[in-house]
TrEMBL record:
The lineage of its organism: Bacteria, Bacillati, Bacillota, Clostridia, Thermoanaerobacterales. PANTHER family: PADR-FAMILY TRANSCRIPTIONAL REGULATOR (PTHR33169), TRANSCRIPTIONAL REGULATOR RV3488 (PTHR33169:SF14). This is Transcriptional regulator, PadR-like family. Signal peptide: none annotated. InterPro entries: Metal_resp_DNA-bind_regulator, Tscrpt_reg_PadR_N, WH-like_DNA-bd_sf, WH_DNA-bd_sf. It comes from Desulforudis audaxviator (strain MP104C). It comes from the Bacteria. Gene3D superfamilies: Winged helix-like DNA-binding domain superfamily/Winged helix DNA-binding domain. Residues 29-102 form the Transcription regulator PadR N-terminal domain.
């Protein structure tokens, strides 16, 4: 991972990961690779079974993210000859990827707590829901 001149690698990693928490692709890929090394197609199938808010995983998006994660040294890959057909890349989690997975979990936990706090305050203000007092849509 490339650290800036005055920024430790951990701070750079945190900044990078904060930009990837919205769509959950990176944390889910890291989670799946923590469980076991996998080929891209297998990762796509596993992501689709995770029922992410983004819907079905687009293969081009997944492979683009895997390449970016490899550039950031969160994953590595190597070509593996298949029993039938062409060679395929097998992706592995790196120690930095494991660190990123734990940091993603921390960032997502913090985000969840903030969302829950907002919803608690919202329910206090609108105990009957959005249609209270005919103010739906306001």
């Amino acid at each position: 991972m490339n650290a800036g001149p005055n920024r430790p690698p951990e701070a750079e990693l945190a900044l990078l990961l904060q930009t990837h928490t919205e769509k959950l692709i990176w944390p889910c890929l890291l989670f799946l690779l923590y469980r076991k090394p996998a080929h891209g197609y297998e990762l796509i199938q596993s992501l689709n079974r995770m029922d992410l808010p983004e819907g079905e995983a687009d293969p081009a998006t997944i492979y683009r993210n895997l390449r970016r994660m490899e550039e950031e040294e969160l994953v590595t890959s190597r070509w593996e000859a298949g029993p039938s057909g062409p060679a395929r890349r097998l992706y592995h989690l790196t120690p930095a990827g494991k660190q990123a997975l734990h940091l993603f979990a921390h960032l997502l936990r913090e985000k969840k707590e903030k969302m829950e706090q907002f919803l608690r305050q919202y329910r206090e203000l609108f105990p009957a829901g959005p249609a209270e007092n005919g103010k739906e849509g306001e």
